[in-house]
């Protein structure tokens, strides 16, 4: 390979961009192993005491478990809805698909904080009207997170489906299986990777969400990002760095797993499905 | 009974009419090739038989029963797709069993059928592999096996050989023909390759622009093409427009061709390149016919170029005193090859059988 000044410049820019993106993450992880009581850089010594300390921070640990449950439930529901919607839209008899495709990607256009407020107000009003309480409940939170993840899961399912040769489904019909059996025996198994990828991605988006959850949290039902915000608004110490590192680790592992199933460049790539 | 008939089938997509009143009857055990260029409606015809496309008008009957509106999964047809459409997440065995399971055929009967098609197509031993682990030729065999194992009333083949290389294509062609004969399997193949159609089918149906232009045995279609289009599609290159004048056919360029007395008048005439013969021209000064180059059953000209094709050599002969467009292609066997070179003066002998009068195309 030739190494002209252009190549060197390109590498330099790439390096700078990566440093810019990764430096804060690296710094947080680094500081989480600090020995001192305050966030100070560089640390004077190293320890794992802040990870041990996490046990005594119930708002953070319960937030972590709540967020894990929420992300798992929301992404599974979201993938089920997205998978069916994608099959219906791409293989069904609907003629004008454009507006419906747009509808599924729509939530992306509304700022998350607005979605959060809107959902809160909406569910509050309906709940009051029905003499019941919808917010804050875990079901309202679950609904919000399904909504939050749907644009991503739908898009990944839709792209996955568009990569499947329709002649496979026609072959199944031709061999005597009806449409429902064909979906179960051919379409869904072929979508497996895309759906697993979508579920993992949905999980990550739900797990990392702050803005929508902010309005829907209730006592004992606080997501991890909201709990971290609360914690950090009172004090800044390496505890927050430690819980951040835990969060980063969970997401990193999931991304590695997801990468095995899906080509992210293709799934999230520029341009539309089809 | 598995006689298949298409009656007056029409189909349009928007303003484009892809099929215009196509009628076909396919007898039990017959192998029919639908031949035509892309866009002629042959694949649409196949999809209508399989049930993937619903015609705007007309009927499809199988064994006398109207199946025009029947859903594809209820029809007794089996299609071999152009790209094979094997299920990539299933083994070869699961792929072949797919249609049997749908028909609730299991146990000893299923095992016997699997073994039979496996032997027939020479794919025994591949049962536990996935389609991705097979060569193109093997995939093709599995696709045929998957269709044959359900013992369909009609086997449909959508350009099944087009993804194979030349050599493999010829051997699979022979094999396919043998299998079809042995099983007396009613079958329709759709293809754009006239050689494939000629070698496989009992009967040829040539389509152009949504119509059936000619139907008949391979020999009938090849030796007596009805229209200009059919002749062109069969690889007959020397086609001249013109009119009958006395006992001869005079082309638009003015070339006079001998026309056997019993041939009907026609707006076109083709000269079959392989039926023409080249002869050394007499010395130009020894004949007064140099100016009237087109007397008798002989044309005169100069070899404009020469293409060596192995068994045969193709000459393009520019006719004396005629414009470039009136050149004639002659296909001669290689034995004669050394005889002529570019620039040689030659005579073209036209035996009666080489002259094919052609009708205008239906949409002209």
Descriptive report:
The complex is a heterodimer of chains A (274) and B (364). Chain A is an all-alpha fold and 274 residues long. Chain A has one domain: MetI-like (MetI-like fold), CATH 1.10.3720. Chain A is 73% helix and 0% strand. Chain B is α+β, with helices and mostly antiparallel strands and 364 residues long. Chain B has two domains: 223 residues, P-loop containing nucleotide triphosphate hydrolases (Rossmann fold, 3-Layer(aba) Sandwich); 130 residues, Beta Barrel (OB fold (Dihydrolipoamide Acetyltransferase, E2P)). In chain B, 23% of the residues lie in helices and 32% in strands. Chain B is built from eight helices and 20 strands. In chain B, helix 2 runs parallel beside helix 4 and helix 3 crosses helix 4. Chain B is elongated and about 80 Å long. The two termini of chain B are 40 Å apart. About 3% of the residues of chain B have low confidence. Classes of the chains: A mainly alpha (274), B alpha+beta (364).
Describe how the helices and strands are arranged:
The complex is a heterodimer of chains A (274) and B (364).
Chain A: H1 5-32, H2 49-53, H3 58-91, H4 98-105, H5 112-129, H6 138-162, H7 166-174, H8 179-208, H9 211-214, H10 224-234, H11 238-261, H12 264-267
Chain B: E1 4-13, E2 16-26, E3 31-35, H1 42-50, E4 57-62, E5 65-66, E6 77-80, H2 92-102, H3 107-121, H4 136-148, E7 154-158, H5 166-183, E8 187-191, H6 194-200, E9 203-208, E10 211-216, H7 218-223, H8 228-233, E11 238-245, E12 248-251, E13 256-258, E14 268-271, E15 277-280, E16 298-308, E17 312-319, E18 328-333, E19 345-349, E20 355-358
Parallel strand pairs in B: 3-8, 3-9, 6-7, 7-8
Antiparallel strand pairs in B: 1-2, 1-4, 4-5, 9-10, 11-12, 11-14, 12-13, 14-20, 15-19, 16-17, 16-19, 17-18
Helix pairs in contact in B: 2-4, 3-4
């Amino acid at each position: 390979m030739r190494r002209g000044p252009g190549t060197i410049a390109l590498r330099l820019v790439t390096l700078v961009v990566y440093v810019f993106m990764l430096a804060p993450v690296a710094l947080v992880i680094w500081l989480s192993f600090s020995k001192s009581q305050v966030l100070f850089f560089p640390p004077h010594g190293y320890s794992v005491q802040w990870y041990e300390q996490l046990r005594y921070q119930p708002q953070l640990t319960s937030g972590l478990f709540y967020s894990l449950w929420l992300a798992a439930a929301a992404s599974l529901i979201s993938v089920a809805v997205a998978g069916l919607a994608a099959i219906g839209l791409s293989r069904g008899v609907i003629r004008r698909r454009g507006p419906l495709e747009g509808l599924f990607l729509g939530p992306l256009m509304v700022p998350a904080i607005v979605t959060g407020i809107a959902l809160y107000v909406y569910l509050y009003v309906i709940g009051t009207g029905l003499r019941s309480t919808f917010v804050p409940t875990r079901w309202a939170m679950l609904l919000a997170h399904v909504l939050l993840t749907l644009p991503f899961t739908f898009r990944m399912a839709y792209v996955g489906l568009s990569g499947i040769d329709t002649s496979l489904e026609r072959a199944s019909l031709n061999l005597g299986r009806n449409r429902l059996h064909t979906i179960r025996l051919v379409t869904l198994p072929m979508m497996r990777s895309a759906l697993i990828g979508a579920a993992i991605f949905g999980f990550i988006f739900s797990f990392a969400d702050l803005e929508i959850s902010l309005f829907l949290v209730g006592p004992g039902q606080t997501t991890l990002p909201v709990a971290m915000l609360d914690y950090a608004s009172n004090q800044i110490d390496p505890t927050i760095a430690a819980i951040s590192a835990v969060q980063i680790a969970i997401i990193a592992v999931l991304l590695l797993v997801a990468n095995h199933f899906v080509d992210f460049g293709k799934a999230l790539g520029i341009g539309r499905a089809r | 009974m598995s006689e298949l008939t298409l009656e007056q089938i029409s189909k349009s997509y928007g303003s484009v009419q892809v099929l215009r009143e196509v009628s076909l009857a396919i007898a039990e055990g017959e192998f029919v090739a639908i031949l035509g260029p892309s866009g002629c409606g042959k694949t649409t015809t196949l999809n209508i038989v399989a049930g993937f496309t619903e015609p705007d008008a007309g009927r499809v009957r199988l064994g006398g029963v109207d199946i025009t509106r029947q859903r594809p999964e209820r029809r007794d047809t089996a299609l071999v797709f152009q790209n094979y459409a094997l299920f990539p997440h299933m083994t070869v065995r699961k792929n072949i069993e797919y249609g049997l399971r749908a028909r609730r055929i299991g146990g000893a009967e299923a095992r016997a059928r699997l073994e039979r098609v496996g032997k027939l197509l020479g794919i025994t031993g591949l049962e536990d592999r996935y389609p991705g682990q097979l060569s193109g030729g093997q995939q093709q065999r599995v696709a045929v096996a998957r269709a044959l194992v359900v013992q369909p009333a009609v086997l449909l083949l959508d350009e099944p050989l087009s993804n194979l290389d030349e050599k493999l294509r010829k051997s699979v062609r022979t094999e396919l023909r043998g299998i079809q004969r042995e099983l007396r399997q009613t079958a329709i193949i759709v293809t754009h390759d006239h050689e494939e159609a000629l070698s496989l089918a009992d009967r040829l149906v040539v389509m152009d622009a949504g119509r059936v232009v000619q139907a008949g045995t391979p020999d009938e279609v090849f030796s007596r093409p009805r229209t200009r289009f059919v002749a062109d599609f069969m690889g007959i290159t020397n086609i001249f427009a013109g009119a009958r004048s006395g006992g001869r056919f005079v082309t638009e360029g003015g070339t006079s061709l001998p026309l056997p007395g019993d041939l009907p008048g026609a707006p076109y005439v083709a000269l079959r390149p392989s039926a023409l013969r080249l002869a050394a021209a007499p010395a130009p000064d020894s004949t007064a016919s140099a100016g009237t180059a087109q007397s008798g059953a002989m044309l005169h000209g100069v070899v404009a170029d020469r293409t060596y094709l192995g068994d045969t050599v193709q000459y393009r002969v520019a006719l004396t005193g005629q414009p470039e467009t009136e050149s004639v292609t002659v296909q001669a066997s290689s034995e004669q090859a050394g005889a002529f070179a570019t620039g040689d003066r030659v005579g073209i002998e036209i035996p009666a059988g080489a002259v094919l009068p052609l009708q205008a195309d239906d949409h002209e």
